[in-house]
Amino acid sequence: MRPSIVLLVFLAPCAAGCGPSAAELRERTLSILNTEADRWDGGEKFATTAVDAYGHPLSWSVRTTTLDNVLELRSNGPDGLPKNSDDVVVTRSHRHGKTTITEEAAKVVEGVSSGATSGAIKGIKKGLGLGGKGEKKE
After folding, report:
1. pLDDT (average), residues 107-120
2. pLDDT band for position 135 (cuts 50, 70, 90)
3. 47 and 89 share a domain?
4. DSSP 14-25
5. What is the pLDDT of residue 72?
6. Is residue 9 assigned to a domain?
7. Is there a single domain that holds both residue 89 and residue 113?
8. Which of 23, 70, 31 is nearest to 52 (CA)?
9. Where does residue 48 fall: left (phi above 0), alpha (psi -120 to 50 degrees), or beta otherwise?
10. Using an 8 Å Cβ cutoff, are 42 and 69 in contact?
11. How far is the C-alpha of 71 from the C-alpha of 53, rounded, in Å?
12. Which of the four pLDDT bands, split at 50, 70 and 90, describes residue 33?
């Protein structure tokens, strides 16, 4: 057998579809995202230089909610275009300890009671003839 025929026999299957399947690339990407997300310390900042299985850099954001910092780590998928159906996304959340549900509930109650108290005082003043603007009691 000539060397060129041997080479052709081995290279032909690779040209016809050797390499990882779409499902394998997606799984590798998910593994990379989870590994990177697990490195996050739960703070308000995050950075990575990792790339997905397609060779694209990852994108991320950290947002702060009432109780948590939430990390969204994203691969733009095989097409490299953001925010479409082939993206792979993982999220993590960590309590930041800056507020609690009790504190948030107290703020709401304070706002409601402040409004109710101010309304009641205005009503009493009006009833006594003390709160009307431009009105004179004779």
Report:
1. 76
2. low
3. yes
4. HHTT-S--HHHH
5. 98
6. no
7. no
8. 31
9. beta
10. yes
11. 20
12. very high
